[in-house]
Specification:
The protein is an alpha/beta fold. A hairpin with a 2-residue loop joins strand 21 and strand 22. It is built from 5 helices and 38 strands. It has 2 domains: 3-89, Udp-n-acetylmuramoylalanyl-d-glutamate--2,6- Diaminopimelate Ligase, Chain: A, domain 1; 104-300, 3 Solenoid (UDP N-Acetylglucosamine Acyltransferase, domain 1). Helix content is 15%, strand content 27%. It has a 10-stranded parallel beta sheet with strand order 8-11-14-17-20-25-28-31-34-37, with no helix packed on it. It has a 10-stranded parallel beta sheet with strand order 10-13-16-19-24-27-30-33-36-38, with no helix packed on it. It is an enzyme of class 2 (transferase).
Length: 341
């Protein structure tokens, strides 16, 4: 797959400074780019290396392009332009082609136009699939589920009964949506299961990584708004709500009935307690533990950064002494106070 620089500029809506006929065959990292490659710069550390770059073209801001004599596509945000360019060069195959003869599809299923269903998929009664839906091999779609137009499911996804997925969603392999939430009552040491009577409702243009589990609600629904992105191996418990534009990195766990606002960024390995609220535009750095509500936008962190083992052992030993040290300080302060006149 090749494009001329002129074609790329037109497709991306960028201004070209240079040879419109230059052929581009792939996108390459800045330091490895060569003939017929295009690259980009978002990190200022590469600026001194501009003239030594062997790429046939670069995507640069107007400010950075002033110090480069080669072919340039001018962009206000080179990283966003790179993302759009990568879509032009994307050769990812469809999740499924046509409807495979081994797929098991109930007679009551409503299929939109140009639906594709892979081998050994199972689609149960009452399901509705919108136009252009792609269901990968081995997927399971439970009774009365709804999947919006142009949504794609990679192999072995399980979508439980009555779950609703919006349009233009992308679900990676082995993800489970709508499994039972962790709901039990304890009767004299015996766990009594609480049937989960809600469902999961997911908006449009949501992307969910591989091996994610999203539990159905106990009474109300678990809800994920449009334009949310979720990385691999995230767990979202029952009755969680996630606002639009939020991004969640891998291995994060969100306990039940927590409400997460819009345009939040949650780092990898974060643990979020149940029954709390996180307001809009909050960033939580990786491996933080969130135990109470966050009511002000901003960046929040917890946890201990890596240290050399010897230093870490000393730090832990001192940490265990904090309570005793506190008592000694209080005692010293009490004895040093001047007596009241």
């Amino acid at each position: 797959m090749t494009f001329s620089l002129g074609q790329i500029a037109e497709q991306l809506g960028l201004t070209l400074v240079g040879d419109a006929e230059q052929v581009i065959s792939k996108i390459a990292p800045f330091e490895k780019a060569g003939e017929q490659d295009i690259s980009f710069i978002t990190n200022a550390k590469y600026l001194p290396l501009l003239e030594s770059c062997k790429a046939s073209a670069l995507i640069l801001t107007e400010q950075h392009a002033a110090s480069y004599s080669g072919n340039v596509l001018l962009s206000k945000d080179p990283y966003v332009s790179y993302a759009k360019l990568a879509q032009l060069f994307d050769t990812t195959p469809a999740c499924a082609a046509a409807i495979h003869s081994s797929a098991v599809i109930d007679a009551t299923v409503e299929l939109g136009e140009q639906v594709s269903i892979g081998a050994n998929a199972v689609i149960e009664s009452g399901v509705k699939l919108g136009d252009g839906v792609q269901i990968g091999a081995g997927c399971f779609i439970g009774k009365n589920a709804r999947i919006g137009s142009y949504t794609k499911l990679w192999p072995n996804c399980s979508i439980y009964h009555s779950v609703k997925l919006g349009e233009h969603c992308l679900i990676q392999a082995n993800t489970v949506i709508g499994s039972d939430g962790f709901g039990y009552a304890n009767q004299q040491g015996q766990w009594i299961k609480i049937p989960q009577l809600g469902s999961v409702v997911i908006g449009d243009s949501v992307e969910i990584g591989a091996s994610v589990s999203i539990d159905r609600g106990a009474l109300d629904n678990t809800t994920i708004d449009s334009n949310v992105i979720i990385d691999n191996q995230v767990h979202i418990a029952h009755n969680v709500t996630i606002g639009s534009g939020t991004a969640i990195a891998g291995t994060t766990g969100i306990a039940g009935s927590t409400n997460i606002g819009r345009y939040c960024i949650i780092g990898g390995g974060v643990g979020i307690n149940g029954h709390i609220d996180i307001c809009d535009q909050v960033t939580i750095t990786g491996y933080s533990m969130v135990t109470k509500s966050i009511t002000e936008p901003g960046t929040y962190s917890s946890g201990m950064p890596t240290q050399a083992n010897r230093q870490w052992r000393k730090s832990m030993a001192r940490l265990s002494q904090l309570d005793e040290m506190h008592k000694r300080i209080v005692s010293l302060e009490r004895h040093q106070r001047p007596e009241a006149e």
